[in-house]
Amino acid sequence: MGASLARAAQWTSASDSGKGKLELSPMNEKLLNDIIQFVEGFSSKYPEEGRFVFKDPLIWETSIIPSSFSTGYNASDSAVTSNDKDASGNPLLELSGGVLRVKSFAQLTNILRMAKEKRLNEARMCLEANRDPLVKILGPGFATVDSEDSTLIRMVEKSKSDDSAEGAVRLRLLLIVNEFDMKLLNSCFREISKKVRLSPDAVNAEVELLQSFAGEAPNTLLKDIHFTTQLVFSNKCRALPWRQVHGDICYVVIKPHDGDSFCVTASTSGCYVNGGFEEETQTVNFEKKGEVYKDLVSLLSDKSRQFADNIAKKEFSMQEDNLKETEKETAVINDLSSEQEKEDIQTEKQQKALKDAGKKGKAGKDQKKSMQPSLKWRNLEDSRKTEKAQKETKKKVQVTSVPAYRRPSYFGKKTPADDDDDMSESSDESDEEEEIQDRRQDAGSDLPSEYWQIQKLVKYLKGGNQTATIIALCSMRDFNLTQETCQLAIRDVGGLEVLINLLDTDENKCKIGSLKILKEISRNVQIRRAIADLGGLQTMVRILQSPNKDLKCLAAETIANVAKFRRARRTVRQHGGIRKLVALLDVPVNSADIGKDIEVARSGALALWSCSKSTKNKHSIKKAGAIPMLAKLLKSSHEEVQMLIPVVGTLQECASEKSYRLAIRTEGMIENLVANLRSDDSELQMHCAAAIFKCAEDSVTRDLVRQYEGLDPLVALLPQSDNKELLAAATGAIWKCAISSENVARFQELKCIEQLVALLNDQPEEVLVNVVGALGECAQEPANRIVIRKSGGIPSLVHLLTGTNQALLVNVTKAVGACATEPENMSIIDKLDGVRLLWSLLKNQNPEVQASAAWAVCPCIENARDAGEMVRSFVGGLELIVSLLKSSDLEVLASVCAAIANIAKDEENLAVITDHGVVPMLAKLASTTNDKLRRHLAEAIARCCTWGNNRVSFGREGAVAPLVGYLKSEDKQVHRSTAQALYQLSRDPDNCITMHENGVVKMLLNMVGSSDSALQEAAAGCIGNIRRLALANEKAKYA
């Protein structure tokens, strides 16, 4: 622990007491949690080492009070000593005057257990007071050193002569601590490596760029920015060597328009404001005065409002001198690159065949010294630039341009982004092409020789005969076409147009060579968009009807790569590609070349898989008759994994549609999907589980999965926690299957719930959503709620209530609500402040989260010890829940009414919600026709009638007559809650008259004979009140 605390932990500078503190940073929090986990399990894992007595006690000021100590300790009002003592008779733990002294790991474990939720703070105070714990545990000879540490070697040498048991324990303890120390350091280094690290080149370029936008003019970004020194070391750093050891690169003085100047330290970990720069002495105060930012622009955007506004508005200009200098640099770089190209052309030798074939194009070669885009490509580029210029004119934004190689992304330039996963067919596509900026290789960039060699091969494709073309295609395939440089080299010189034109020739060899290249390079998002722009998809769709099976395979696989974005998928559909791709799935029974036919079918399934991401394409695929063919391929004896993966992938993509789920079930494919869950291929398992996940929305499918013994392999996939995609699919399938109680019984037998609880930590959100959803369904059974508690799942579930993922919040609220129906579970939820977290989710903007949180609140109120006081302790909580009655979502209204029915059981709370206007708001909902809302609304009205004149107010607000109509519902639960509400309302004479006028007596008389005792009693009570009013009227009439 000493090395990790000294090297990885982040400490503040020395305070008044002369000791630094651990910073409140995510890195330190992770470090502390790892140490706590290590110490908590130390005694049970290493019992002998846990009893080892430290050389000197660890001493720190604690927040634990003497009353927290119980068995094994002698505690008084102000002091505590442990019963366990060392060889000298001194206690291993002493607490006196708020200062704790501990001399063994066993006692440290007990301290952390007693600290409970404060253990993080306790560990922090202990480590701050003992920055090198090994010195106290083993002695000064084991102190952490910066140079090479030979302590362990000396210890091993000493153990050879020391045969005592204590020496062996000490050695084992040192090895355990050293091993843990290495794990901590590696963990911290992994976290650090994930973060963006600044380099001297990046900082210098950023400062230089900001200098070009600095000046006294109001439309500049800054007044001034400069380095503190002009001294530059060989590694391009300006910080002194002894500061470079700490990661410092340079120090920059910045003068914004709207504030005083300040000094910034640029280090490898980011930029932060330091203690300042003294101009007279030329010294920097290195102390950090604020948080760390990823770059200077982020820091300035936070520190200067005017800087941030100018960046957002793009209302800034570049200094003319710098602009001219930049233009000169660009010209020099272009000249250098042109000369380099000449040298490469002269020095590189081509194959003899290429030389002979290339003589025809030599004249064209001499005319142009540098490669230019083809005419068709230039036309596309010009049209795009024209559209973009028109849009910029409309916005009236004037920004002085900066050369492309000098313009960073944070000044408004969009970075290339792939919107391949956009599945919407109806969304606006007007700015689709603007989402991905065109990336072309700069003339001055350091390009590999392959770039120029490929460009020369493209020239042979343009000007050579058939033989030269085939040779050029073969030579081009020898390059690594998966590299972006090679892909863009083909595009930049107009090679894509040539390759697509070759598809219209009559020579199959040229077509095959071209398609093989297009198939490889179309994995690049820019290339696939360029292919669509140049009309390549239409040509490939036509090739799908070719008698040549190799051509059909290659065309389908290329379509599969290109159809990863919305416009390409639409193009395939509009040109009849879906029908032709479905035709490829038909494998003849007695084919002479069955292997090639299967390959054609596999390629067709791959293309359909890509196309099926669009809703309209799914309908076209079904209309073309693909489902029986996919079922045939899934059930065929040709069960090659590479064949099954695209077939199952297409099925699981289409299973989001209800019609497909029905077809998958009726075609008998569930049995095959279950069988393939036992495959050795994890990708196939993942797609099968994902298909079951979507199909299991239907109850019949859930029963089929159980009948075909599919629950067992799903549970068997849970230990594969390294494969997150497979884990997400498996847990999703388990979640949907758990909706059926028969499946839950099988999951209990397989110990599935314990495994699901173990997955509640350290998993991505897509896995957590499914895991929590499955636990929520399993928790509907009382026995499973106990299993979740005993497995330690409730604290993890409550912790997830603090998340932001909407789907996860819906599921976790449902799971917590189900667990809260057990009193013991409810006490744990209450201690962890779970009810308050649930209540806070009522403020969420998502109606599903609001409804789920309100449903979860109901069992919490029912099972809490002092529910009334708990609810009143939430500031503004009652007002919040009453305000939700204004929602337009029926599920929110039903859940809130159910919560109000529970809240109103407490008289004080009922008085408060009455003051907040709950009566007129409930009365306003009485006209609803939704039975679920009717049931809970009637319950809420019945509860609210017990306070003051609320029953009179309900009658005045017109709620009585609609309630009578509820008795005509088919739902028996609506009858019961309505009868109870009418019984309460009938205690007011005016309400009795309204009920009688609406014919309530006849309907209630039929319900008096119900088998539901609560309904019987309420109906009879309501009739009794009406009858007593009638008798009173008669008596008054004849008196």
UniProtKB/TrEMBL annotation:
InterPro entries: ARM-like, ARM-type_fold, Armadillo, GSKIP_dom_sf. ARM repeats lie at residues 535-577, 625-669, 751-793, 876-918, 958-991. SUPFAM superfamilies: ARM repeat, Hypothetical protein c14orf129, hspc210. Residues 322-445 are annotated as: Disordered. PROSITE patterns: ARM_REPEAT (PS50176). Residues 418-436 have a biased composition (Acidic residues). It holds the Pfam family Arm. Residues 339-369, 378-392 have a biased composition (Basic and acidic residues). This is Armadillo repeat-containing protein 4. It comes from Clavelina lepadiformis.
